[in-house]
Design a protein that fits this description.
The protein is 19% helix and 22% strand. The chain is α+β, with helices and mostly antiparallel strands.
Length: 229
């Protein structure tokens, strides 16, 4: 190895001598620790791992292997199946002053404000005409929408319409009154019903080609789970 450049002198460029381009490798202790587990959604039963639809923490190597074999999908920061099955409500923020039409971008933006990140192209509205506003009479209304995972899972989600004003940073539905969970009676009040996730190991392409996700889900029995219906 060449001698180090004395203090106060300009370092010679590495191109002067190939030995100047050599570096001593040092190990950083923080990179010697194993990577933390990754939360995954199993898309089918996996021996010694878990059952279909189960959301579990897997080692990086196993998660990567199952993902490449299309036996599992990466779970988003929140537990999609939990939100769908437990009927937890996501506040959906809309303008109290400007006109709007409910769309996947509004839903994705509102969800991201609560740490729930889903690509816009993976979010679908429920069947029927999209809601438009401002419509103060609809404030606090529960709505149904859907998220797809790896083009194999459709997860039903719930949102609550909340009108907000950017200049006042207020909403008409007080924060302490926002329902965290929806009962079956509350779903019925807004013309909704309990729904479960839909899974098809062969993908969702046939649904995309035939009809909207919201239309397809509206036709399903509320207790149906898999694509074998």
């Amino acid at each position: 190895m060449p001698e180090r450049t004395p203090d106060g002198l300009m370092q010679r460029p590495p191109t002067d001598h190939q030995d100047f381009a050599k570096y001593e490798a040092k190990e950083d202790p923080q990179y010697l620790e194993p990577a933390p587990p990754i939360k995954m959604i199993l898309l089918e039963d996996v021996d010694d791992v878990g059952d279909k639809y189960e959301i579990i923490d897997l080692s990086v190597n196993l998660a990567h292997k199952l993902y490449l074999n299309k036996k599992a999908a990466y779970a988003s920061p929140f537990d999609l199946e939990y939100y769908g099955r437990k009927k937890q409500i996501v506040p959906i923020y809309v303008s109290i002053r400007n006109e709007w039409t409910l769309n996947p971008l509004i839903l994705a933006t509102s969800m991201e404000q609560h740490g729930i990140r889903i690509p816009v192209n993976c979010i679908y509205l429920a069947d029927g005409e999209p809601m438009k506003g401002p419509a103060l009479k609809e404030d606090g209304r529960l709505i149904r929408f859907y998220a797809t995972i790896e083009d194999k899972l459709i997860v039903p989600l719930l949102g609550r319409i909340l009108h907000v004003s950017l200049d006042e940073d207020t909403n008409l539905f007080p924060e302490d009154q926002q329902l965290k969970m929806a009962s079956n009676a509350q779903l019925l009040q807004f013309g909704l019903r309990p729904e479960t996730i839909y899974f098809n190991p062969n993908g969702l392409q046939q649904i995309y080609e035939k009809e909207e996700i919201g239309t397809f889900m509206a036709k399903r029995p509320s207790n149906a789970i898999t694509g074998a219906e």
